[in-house]
Write a structure and sequence with these properties.
The chain has 365 residues and is an alpha/beta fold. The chain has 13 helices and nine strands. α2 packs across α4 and α4 packs parallel to α11. The radius of gyration is 26 Å and the shape is globular. The chain starts with a helix and ends with a helix. The structure holds zinc ion (ZN). The site of zinc ion (ZN) has 6 residues, from α4.
Amino acid sequence: MKRILSLVLLIFAMVLCFSASFSISSLSFCEDELISFIENSGIRTAGSEGEKQSANYIQKKLEELNISPLYEEYQQSFEYNDSTSQNVLGIVDNGSDKYVVIGAHYDNIYKLDQSEGVNDNASGVITSLNLAGNFATKNLDFNIIFAYFGAEEVGLVGSEYFLNNLTNEILDNIILYINLDSIGAGDNLYYYHYDAPTTYGTFVDSFAENYAITKLGTKRLYSNRNLLGINYNHIGLNSDNANFIKRGINSLTFFAGNLDVARLGFHETENKDTIMHNTDSLETNIEVFGEKFYLNMASVNNFVTDLLLSENFSENMSVREINPILLTDWFLKVLAIIFVIALGLGTFIFFKVKNKKTIINSSKK
Ligand SMILES: [Zn+2]
């Protein structure tokens, strides 16, 4: 009897142990990879040695995953402020003429050299590398470009260079750009495309109903940005997605935060703890968000994986519709031009008439 009891206890302990290790591994999504990236990269501001080191690290990971370089070499260098920065570009080529681009910037915020950039944006880089692993051998009806952008924090320089140097064959056939920026630190996960019912947006919205992720409307973004007193650039979040949106490319952005309480930054908790750029270390992120940090990354990973594997995905993504935000921008610009012309003409006519009157008056005298 004793023996049976101890056997039952042993089995019970083993089950407990197994379930505990299972939950730990699922709760600390890519923890080792994240730590390894941070330790190998150091401070990685645009054009710095640390940024170059991080690029080499990402390249090594892509090589290990057997992801081919998009061009002859993985790294695409460009000049930034008398120094050199670079994008790291890989491709899963499924022989299709359609492309999905998954992008994450890997540089750090500039000037604040103490930042480790763990949430912004090691969280996006590591999740994207995991996605690269998920899709390395999947044969889908579209190709996937994995883009790791340099010099984002100094004005979206890397992604602009990437887009300017793409062939039209690729540029015209990007069916969706997915942007991962700061996806760990936050009570909530958000996704953003635009408000108007586009084919691809409607597809994403109905897909998102089964996930714990909140759609973020442009109005909400506007009001928060205004509240924060930040000059908002009218084309979505200030991340690499802006460069895609302004070219009319369907785009989907993920980030973590709590916009119900946001005051100083996006990455706040209900009890108003905040991750700012100068406190963006692994220690602080885990202190404030605990397992939630990894869970957010895992959720984005699962959402993107499921979305790309969903039925009729590429058909629904292939339709490009004009971004209403751009329309508003153009409309305002046209209005501004008409206003300036009208003002110029008005002033011209006013002085012409005034001049005439003066001549008539002086000739009457
Ligand atoms: Zn960022």
